[in-house]
Design goal:
Blueprint lengths: L7 H32 L1 H22 L1
Helix pairs in contact: 1-2
């Protein structure tokens, strides 16, 4: 933030907003997967495996 010319207050505000948005997205995403698992176990497991595999391959490809 300092390199972009932001003041300390603006940096703190940006970090707070980013953390809040990340928490909300994570909570909503996990709720959707949990509901999917409860209604259709096979499809829910397939989605969970897909997300885990896609994160693993991205991490492996980047370094």
């Amino acid at each position: 933030g300092i390199m972009a010319g932001l003041s300390p207050v603006e940096i703190l505000l940006a970090v707070g907003i980013g953390a809040t948005i990340e928490c909300l997205v994570f909570a909503l995403g996990s709720e959707i997967i949990i509901r999917l698992l409860a209604t259709n176990t096979t499809l829910g497991l397939a989605v969970a495996v897909y997300f885990l595999a896609s994160r693993y391959t991205r991490r492996k490809a980047s370094g």
